[in-house]
Amino acid sequence: IVVTGSDDHLWKMWALPDGNVLMTGEGHTDWLSGCCFHPSGTQLVTSSGDATVRIWDFSKRGCILTLEGHAHAVWDCSWHSCGDFVASASMDNTSKIWDVNSERCRYTMCGHKGSVNSIEFLPFSNTVLTSSADKTLSLWDART
Prior knowledge:
The chain is mainly beta and 144 residues long. The protein has one domain: Methylamine Dehydrogenase, Chain H, CATH 2.130.10. Helix content is 0%, strand content 57%. The chain has a 4-stranded antiparallel sheet with strand order 4-5-6-7, with no helix packed on it. Strands 8-9-10-11 form a 4-stranded antiparallel sheet, with no helix packed on it. InterPro entries: WD-F-box_domain-protein, WD40/YVTN_repeat-like_dom_sf, WD40_PAC1, WD40_repeat_CS, WD40_repeat_dom_sf, WD40_rpt. This is Sperm-associated antigen 16 protein. One of its GO terms (cellular component) is axonemal central apparatus. It comes from Gavia stellata (Red-throated diver).
């Protein structure tokens, strides 16, 4: 499976090796910057220049949740290995941990002096790694 974005703010999921389109997502209003499969493989999270993070459900064939709260473009997104939390990294110099079940931001992590360009959970832990345009990496405890 391959996920691609396009200039018209759509993403497509392609099956390999036959090249059939499995699903198309429409909803972001600006460029797509990141995507990550849910640990179970049933959902996808995407990030965008429209400052939102969206969660897509494959069985419902559409967006089931839009997370809003960043002030600028969101560069990256990542699922926690339990599947209940999403992390996002933004041009607004912050990263956020979102609780998918309550549909709200649990934590906002501040401290970088530049755009936060990538974010990743350490598997099976509460540790989050961010990288920034300020030329630093930061490790965060997502619980505090």
